[in-house]
C-alpha cells in the first residue's frame, strides 16, 4: 500500500519545538475548541477525588484463578463500568519498573541525530515517531513516541530497537517477558470473570500465537497546554493494554459519564484497560473506553503502553458463549490487521472504528 510508505509532510519533533523556547504553539497543534481540555474538563469539585478502581492482585499465580472472589468481582465491575483499572502487587519488581522508565527517559534526552537513526514510517510505525495517521494537514498531538514489536517473533527485530542508552535492548527484552507473563495472567482472570473457561479468551486471541508491542510516549513541556492534547481521544484498537505511567505527573484522562476524569496513578501500579478487540470478543460485556492525554507547561511526562493483542490475521468476532437470542452478536468479524489499518490511515478518532463494526439488524 504505497500511501503508507511515507509521511505526507516533513516530520517535526515536538521535543525540539518544546526545547526551542517558543511561547505559543504552532497552529498545527491547536485542537478545535470542543476538544480542548480547558473546555471539556468537568470543574465539579465532587470529581476531584474520583479515580479508576485500584485492585490488589496479591496471590495472582499463573493459572489466574486463585484470586479471592471479591477481587474477581472488583475486576468484573471495573471492566463493565470503567474499562480501566489499576493493579498493585502484580508481581513485577518496583525497582525494575523504575529502571525501565528512566532508561526510556534517557533515550528521549539523547542528541537528536542519535534518535533520528531510528525514525519511523507509517508502514509499520516501528521506531521513533511524532504523529499518528497520514492525513495531510491534520491537527497533531503534542508528543513524540517510540513504537516496537515484541511478538510474534517473526516481527521482533532488535536492530529496530534503540541501542543507546547502554543496556536499553536488554531492559526492553526483560520488560517484555514480564509484561507478557502479567498480561497472560490477567487474560485468564478476565476470561473467568466473563463466566468462561480460563483459557477461552487467550484461545480467541490465537493461543500462543498472539501479538505484543510497546509504545513509549514522551510528552514534552507545552507552553499552552489548554490548547493542545498529548494524545487525542481514542479507544485502544488492540486487546489489552498495560500502562506504566509517571505517577508524579498526571496526564491520562478517562471518559466516564460524559466527563473527563484525570487518573491518579498509584505508585508502581500498572493501569490496565480493555481494548476494542476484547469489547468485540465479549460482545460488549466488557467495554473499551475513550481516553486522552493532557499536557503540562512545567513538567515533561513519559509513559509506556504495552499492548497484548490477538494474532493479526484471524477474524475477531463475539464468542459464541456470550451470544444469545436476547443478546445477538453485536459486531461483524474483522481481523486485527484490517482493524488497525483504520488507525494508521486516520489517527485516533474516538470510538468511531469500533462503532463502525456494529452488525446490521
Can you characterise this structure?
InterPro entries: DIOX_N, IPNS-like_FE2OG_OXY, IPNS-like_sf, Oxoglu/Fe-dep_dioxygenase_dom, Plant_2OG-oxidoreductases. This is Fe2OG dioxygenase domain-containing protein. With 361 residues, the protein is of the alpha+beta class. It has one domain: Sandwich (Jelly Rolls), CATH 2.60.120. Helix content is 27%, strand content 19%. It has ten helices and 14 strands. The chain has an eight-stranded mixed sheet. It has a four-stranded antiparallel sheet with strand order 6-11-8-9, with no helix packed on it. A two-stranded antiparallel sheet has the order 13-14. Strand 8 and strand 9 form a beta hairpin. Helix 3 packs across helix 6 and helix 4 crosses helix 6. It is globular and about 55 Å long.
Q: Given the helix and strand composition, which structural class is it?
A: alpha+beta
Shape: globular
What low-confidence regions span 5 or more consecutive residues with pLDDT below 50?
Answer: 39-43
Biggest beta-sheet profile: 8 strands, mixed
Strand content: 15-25%
**Treating each run of at least 4 consecutive H or I residues as one helix, how many helices?**
10
Looking at the overall shape, the CATH architecture is Sandwich
Q: N-to-C terminal Cα separation, in Å?
A: 33 Å
Q: How many E-type strands?
A: 14
Topology as H/E string? Answer: HHEHEHHEEHHEEEEEEHEEEEHH
What level of helicity do the residues show?
25-40%
Strand order of the largest sheet: 1-2-10-7-12-5-4-3
- CATH homologous superfamily classification: B-lactam Antibiotic, Isopenicillin N Synthase, Chain
Find the CATH topology: Jelly Rolls
Mean pLDDT equals 90
Query: Please, how many domains?
Result: 1
Provide the gyration radius in Å.
20 Å
Task: Identify the CATH class.
Answer: Mainly Beta
Family: Belongs to the iron/ascorbate-dependent oxidoreductase family.
Catalytic activity: jasmonate + 2-oxoglutarate + O2 = (1R,2R)-12-hydroxyjasmonate + succinate + CO2
Protein name: Fe2OG dioxygenase domain-containing protein
GO molecular function: dioxygenase activity; jasmonic acid hydrolase; metal ion binding
